[in-house]
Amino acid sequence: MANEPLPPFSSSVRLKYVKLGYQYLVNHILTFILIPIIVGISIELARVGPDEILSLVRFLNDLDLIYVMSTLFLVIIVGTVYFMSRPRPVYLVDYACFRPKPNFRVPFSTFLEHARLVPQFDERTVRFQVKILERSGLGEETCLPPANHYIPPTCSMAAARSEAELVIFSAIDELLNKTGMRPKNIDILIVNCSLFSPTPSLSAMIVNKYKLRSNILSFNLSGMGCSAGLISLDLARDLLQAHGNSNALVVSTEIITPNYYLGKERAMLLPNCLFRMGAAAVLLSNCRRERSRAKYRLTHVVRTHKGADDAAYRCVFQEQDSEGLTGINLSKDLMAIAGDALKSNITTMGPLVLPASEQLLFLFSLIARKVFKAKWKPYIPDFRLAFEHFCIHAGGRAVIDELQKNLQLSDQHVEASRMALHRFGNTSSSSLWYELNYIESKGRMKKGDRVWMIGFGSGFKCNSAVWKCLKTIKTPVDGPWSTSIHRYPVDVPAVVKVL
Amino acid sequence: MDVLTTLTIIFLLYSLYLLYKSYKLKCSRNCYLVDYVCFKPSPDRQITTRKCGEIIERNKNLGLAEYKFLLKVIVNSGIGERTYGPRNIIEGREESPTLDDAIEEMDEFLNVCIHDLFVKTKISPRDVDVLVVNISTFCPAPSLASRIVHRYNMRDDVKTYSLSSMGCSATLVAIDVVQNIFKSGKKSLAVVITSESISPNWYSGNDKSMMLGNCLFRCGGSAMLLTNDPAMQAQAKMRLKCLVRTHIGANDDAFNSAVQKEDDMGRVGVHLSKDLPKAAMRAFTENLKRLLPKILPYREIALIAFHIVKQKLVQPNAKLNKVVAQINFKSGVDHFCLHTGGTAVIDAVRQALRLSEFDVEPARMTLHRWGNTSASSIWYVLGYMEAKKRLKKKDRVLMISFGSGFKCNSCLWEVTRDLGDGDVWEDCIKEYPPKTIVNPYLDKYGWVNEETEETFNREERIEAFKNSPW
User: Which CDD domains match (chain B) (predicted)?
Assistant: First the structure.
């Protein structure tokens, strides 16, 4: 998506004020229309005098009681029906992220040393991986699970299960402590983990550990990529519409242990360098009593699937290399495809969240280009008017750069994503929650703020969710950033020399 | 006052419109099964008992005890001679399955079955709003749901869900997802795909508790089209009345009854413990407790309540077995679609619900013709009933399935019109039920009982087998 904004318009300072004035006018149009009407009515009333008004009141008093009662009754019925058919609000009560202990750290030096000692890697492979790591935007505190610290890494099912238990249970324990929610009160459980799907499922593992009720609605999503967390939110939202007074626990994670690639194919070595250990547990509810302590309300979820397109379908592909080793192949077109998927997503998202001023501008630009065949560049709506905070999936430095360019975001808007990538690495579907926690830990989350979460996943999918903050989050925030937030933001250089 | 009257009329009309809209919304909350298609693999993938014997003999890790055990399982399984297996196992590559083998197995199913579904229902793939795929033991990236979106060129706003590891009851979990999406009222079309991946999951070790899967699971799958659009009611086959899910994973024994893990030699297999039947029964009982009030007629419920109260007054501490024995399950259900987990499962459910042989015939015949196709088995059972022209309008069909974890899911459908489509049973329905389903190889493999560890010579046996007239 190489579309550029309309440079002549926004670069001129005078026109910038014209644009601001226009935005203010359109977004407050109702107020501007109402004021003259109210003024008109008051003048009319003053002119008519009190007698007319009194006669009107007397007329209303003379009406039959039956007439009044039936009207009132009808109003109540219709009002009830209307309110009952409205969609139920979905509140985010709280969430917790897995906090990796420092002994799981993989600084660059450890990564290099281990890579050199693994017998399956030759020097060329090691150099390539380190080169990727240098440019990845990852920091020195990202963590890998215990199995990956062995030389060579032990990729057994038992090790994968123990990583799953470690990350998932600690996130859920923290969430249950924070919210005081009793496990027996959980009605819906959704777990998403792309690349590890044992029998019984991870959702069954959670049911077993926390002794959840036997009539729980549990779902285990798999293979859906790094945007699966948002897919789980969509499913939770649909379930919460169908079931009233319910609590839903959504667990997003990616299990690294069984997916370490020990081959020589370059495109398949990338995940080794980028993916790190992480998990998030989120408690959603549609109970009215949770409204008072809920942090956010889910306003929109928009899902886009570009699988119909060949290039998009193949850009993140699990396959076996010539030696029979399985790994994820990331194609070179990934950025372009991500940009394209994002464009489709914001086409649907735009009308739902953008203020009227931006929508009108976009409409004019569209009409001019399509109907009058004007040679204007497509107008990219200013999403900074619709959202205060952005959580972009920390897939890698390139993804964040691309989105910053496409959406014309400032460095502060993408700071949460860059810092989460630096501190925790690419934790797949849970990365959005680490980023949200960063924004909260920095004390930037105020009541009424809107957050846009964007995730990308294999297939190729682009999913986004919009949250509205219900109460100002006070610092210090107890979360995965509590020990490191004071050191952030850091300046992440383009290349960190290791070799 | 004319103005007032006009305003009142406008208001009345608007209120009527709101009421009408909410009524339409309510009507759109039904879940209709428009049609379903079961998968019939190509004839070169058929596995006979002889073939099974060959495959077992190939496994160098097996000694006499395991050999006996496996042959006993196969001949007593109730599985016939025309079930289907994956190509890599038939071609002798079961010990080293590749990712391509698994994808190929899935492709054969996805390319045929879903295509047939669209042709049968005259729906274009671009009309599909929701796609739910459940294939338990294989989850590649991108997901099989994405593979289907790609293959059939679906819209970019299609809602996909890829469920995994939820066992043999996952098809009802998928239907639960669809049912909940339908409750929002927006008219949608949903496609549910159910299958199982056998090729990457062959157990090549010698732990007996992990070998059962090898003997019982066969290839199969089904694709279903569901909708909540009342306009498609005439075309639909069944309407979903209720769906009950039970998960007794909180109980440790139940949770550990079916676990995928490495054996002592590091080979991955699904360990089935001796507690499995007990866990299944427990889950089934829990499920029935919640299901029965929803499906039995009021008269029957009142009668049961009366008996319970009577028993509690007379013998407060006695168990409710006598009361349970008096429940007439068939008062609320006309047909039973049981998961074909094995003859033991079918017999256990038959005994618990006090069903006749006629009631469980569809399940037994499905097990014989198709084997245990995991989650899709209940759709083959439904296909049998339809092919036998048993399903008439207003009949109620109960589907029961079990899954690892341990889960028991059940749902009740109401048939909306007389059904008679043979689908995959068309070519063989006349042969069913056969006079006997006893395995013809019961005699052939009887020699196993005469051998001992000393006399058992693998190579000799394989040679003799190859030269035999069978």
Answer: CHS_like
Lowest mean pLDDT among A87-91, B234-238, B320-324: B320-324
Alpha-carbon span A380 to A9, nearest angstrom: 13
**Cβ within 8 Å, pair B139-A310:** no
Higher pLDDT, B454 or B320: B320
| pLDDT of B447 | 60
Q: Is A422 a catalytic residue?
A: yes
A454 beta partners? A392, A464
Q: Do the beta carbons of residue A36 and residue A364 sit within 8 Å? A: no
Site from A69, A80, A192, A214 to mutate, B interface, most B CB atoms within 10 angstroms? A214
Partner residue opposite B165 with nearest CB, options A71, A157, A201 = A201
Would the pLDDT of B26 be above 50? yes
* CA A212/CA A195 separation, integer angstroms: 25
Residue A417, SS3 per DSSP: helix
Supply the residues of B annotated as catalytic.
168, 247, 335, 339, 368, 372
Catalytic status, residue A413: no
How far is B176 from A479, CA to CA, in rounded Å? 35
Which 358-397 residues of chain B touch chain A by CB within 8 A? none
b (16+ CB within 10 A) / e for A292-318: eebbbebebbbbbbbbbbeebbbbbbb
Name the active-site residue from A114, A220, A329, A393.
A393
Q: Tell me B113's DSSP state.
A: I
Chain centre distance of CA A320 = 31
Give Cα B121 to chain centroid, integer Å: 22
pLDDT tens column, A441-455: 999 999 999 999 999
Annotated catalytic residue A426: yes
Does the beta-carbon distance from B141 to A458 stay under 8 Å? yes
The answer to whether A197 contacts B164, with C-beta atoms less than 8 Å apart, is: yes
Distance CA A410, CA B418 (A): 64
Sorted by sequence, the CB contacts under 8 Å of residue A375 that are 6+ apart come out as none
Residue B135 neighbours by CB under 8 Å, 6+ apart: B106, B144, B164, B193, B194, B195, B196, B197
Confidence check: pLDDT of A3 > 80? no
- What single letter denotes the amino acid at residue B208? K
How far does the CA of residue B375 sit from the closest CA of chain A (Å)?
Answer: 14
- Full-model pTM: 0.89
Residue A229, judged by CB atoms within 10 A of its CB (0-12, 13-18, 19+), counts as: buried
Tens-place pLDDT, residues B273-301: 888 888 999 999 999 999 999 999 999 88
How many angstroms separate the Cα of A191 from the Cα of each of A100, A220, A281, B40?
A: 20, 5, 9, 33
Q: How far is A441 from chain B (nearest CA, A)?
A: 33
ipTM: 0.90
Query: Is the bond preceding residue B469 a cis peptide, omega within 30 degrees?
Result: no
Q: What is the pLDDT of residues A182-199, one digit of tens each?
A: 999 999 999 999 989 999
Sign of the Cα torsion A108, A114, A120, A126 reads: positive
B contacts of A253 (beta carbons < 8 Å): none
For residues A195 and A253, is the Cβ–Cβ distance under 8 A?
A: no
